[in-house]
Amino acid sequence: MSSPPLLVQYVIIRGDLQKVLKWSLGAIIAQACHATAAIVYTFRNDPNVMQYTKDLDKMHKVILEIPDDISLQILAATLSHDNIDFKLWIEQPENIATCLATKPKKMTIFTDAKETTMVYELKKIIEGITKVTPAEQRLYRDELMMEDTKSLADYGLTSAVAKAQAPATIGLVCKLPDGSFEALEMTPLSNPPELPDVMKPQDAQGHEQTVS
Fold first, then answer.
1. pLDDT tens digit at each of 212 positions of the chain
2. Same domain, 16 and 96
3. pTM exceeds 0.70 for this model
């Protein structure tokens, strides 16, 4: 059985609408409905949106909460900086930003694996998340298709290049219903935030103590 592309739409809603402003649950749900409908209609001719709405019973959404208006505006600015399409919903007549919805896009999966992990084992991990079997997956390191019988280290994926603050990226494509595989599409990750001082490595001088 072949699988469609792994597409997901994110909806981020202000938590203070209910907790502070005392909006009803129905009014809050309406905000999400407005934002998702607007972004899907705006990009109705986009290939990912067309695929996402092809099977209406299998649309995948992730609903998240964000504290307040300032946090929502910061998120909107970050998405704009990273060229991620979204709709920021401004409710009228209140004229306040209540939530945002992203354009359906291919899913990004974060997982942990050892250098000695075989490519086939990684596919099994992905299967546990996506329900896409290893036979319906192709993994790519840059533009090189990875072989099931090789390890991640064979493709240069070691602890020296893959870290929590700068994860290594592997491309995933899935088998389509017509038997072909979707095109490889890899979106660069946002620049990670700088490590807090407490997590930065200290040089030898930093540990020296002066005794008087």
1. 444 557 889 999 999 999 999 999 999 999 999 999 999 999 999 988 998 998 888 888 989 999 999 999 999 999 998 889 999 999 999 999 999 999 998 878 888 889 999 999 999 998 888 788 999 999 999 889 999 999 999 999 998 888 766 788 899 988 888 888 888 887 766 554 454 565 455 554 444 343 33
2. yes
3. no
| Residue 130: Cβ-neighbour burial (10 angstroms; 0-12, 13-18, 19+) | middle
Residue 19 sits in the same domain as residue 90: yes
Domain count, the chain: 2
Q: Report if residue 205 sits inside a domain.
A: no
Give the domain range for residue 152: 119-174
| Residue 99 in domain | yes
Residues 101 and 140 in one domain: no
Residue 187 resides in a domain: no
Report the chain's C-alpha Rg in angstroms: 21
Contact 59, 53 (CB under 8 A): yes
Specify the CATH number for the domain of residue 137.
3.10.20.90
